[in-house]
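Take our chain:
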Amino acid sequence: MEKEVIVKWKIKETETERILNLLPTLVEQTRNEKGNLSYNIYQSAEDPNVLFLHERYVNADAAEEHKAASHYQETVALQIIPHLEVREVSVLKKLY
């Protein structure tokens, strides 16, 4: 069963530009993961410090493999998460 996730990041204002520069490589590496179906990042039109990640994986195991991947650990865990004011993760259940 597919796993679909929406993540909201509110970046500390002083870190937004630096983090935005990390994203192209993160997106490319994540999209190349075996179990990834899609990985898109959106920026709020009202607040440039707020990002929304829309992630789809073939199953829950693939989503866990993503979090264990070296590029996730090196970029997200070490260089992004410590500089967030807010991090909200929502797992979705498709209705239609």
